[in-house]
Design goal:
Shape: elongated
Oligomer: single chain
Largest sheet: 6 strands, parallel
CATH topology of the largest domain: Rossmann fold
CATH superfamily of the largest domain: TPP-binding domain
Strand content: 15-25%
Number of helices: 10
Order of helices and strands: HEHHHHHEHEEEEHEHEEH
Distance between the termini: 19 Å
């Protein structure tokens, strides 16, 4: 499909939702979870590094893994696609940004009110849920992992681990907003991770036009009204900016 066809859809829309996945962050140099399992980490599997049970069994190991990933995220920069989404906010009555990514690049690009389905790797919170929460890595107490100043439990990364449920309030809001959208852009996601992968189906059943933007085939192509085989950094500025 051509960019012109998608631009026409967007020109007539007032309510737009955007779902972004790992492909969007990869263009900024942020590896996917499994792509990051290299070097010293190549002998580990997700169950050893990204579950509550793994953290309780070896908190220092898991904290070290996430510290290295945080350093990589902080070194990355938003690309042209992130910036185009941030600038497009005023173009529509509603532009809802929903992401599966945990790197915070949408916010760094200037987008506000981003729904982070899987949390944020730059955030940390008390393992025992006493309410202590840190949003900036450089503000954390010392230690590996640091200890919660409220109750003494370890602080854990503020991401959704394997075996954990998404925040029900965040998911419910995402489902409601995609159902209200006239156009839904699905950008850089394989469509294999649920419940996020179910959002385009909700949108389509509610009458939205679904556009998949991905240089590779995805599991969501069959649901799409239009498929644009381009990267986010290529497609989003061309779709969302005047010209």
């Amino acid at each position: 499909m051509t960019l012109a066809a998608v631009r026409t859809l967007l020109q007539d829309a007032r309510r737009v939702a955007v779902l972004t996945g790992a492909g969007m962050s990869a263009e900024s140099g942020v590896p996917t979870f499994r792509d990051a399992l290299t070097g010293l980490w190549s002998n580990f599997d997700p169950e050893q590094l990204a579950t509550p049970q793994a953290f309780r069994a070896n908190p220092a190991l898991v904290w070290r893994w996430y510290s290295e990933r945080r350093d990589g995220v902080l070194a990355a920069q938003p690309h042209a696609g992130h910036l185009a989404l941030a600038r497009a906010t005023e173009r529509f009555d509603s532009l809802t940004l929903i992401t599966q990514n945990v790197d915070g690049l949408h916010a760094r690009a200037g987008s506000t009110d981003v729904l982070e389905l899987h949390g944020n790797i730059l955030h940390s919170r008390c393992l025992d849920e006493c309410g202590v929460h840190y949003d900036h890595p450089d503000h954390l107490p010392a230690g590996a992992p640091p200890r919660c100043p409220g109750c003494g439990a370890p602080l854990r990364p503020g991401v959704v681990w394997f075996g954990e449920s998404l925040d029900p309030a965040v998911l419910s809001r995402a489902e409601r907003l995609v159902a209200q959208a006239q156009v839904v852009l699905v950008v850089g996601t394989s469509g294999l991770v649920y419940p996020a992968a179910g959002l385009p189906s909700i949108a389509r059943r509610a009458g939205a036009k679904v556009v998949v933007i991905n240089p590779e085939p995805s599991a969501l192509d069959r649901l799409a009204h239009l498929v644009l085989p381009q990267t986010a950094a290529q497609a989003l500025p061309a779709l969302l900016e005047p010209g």
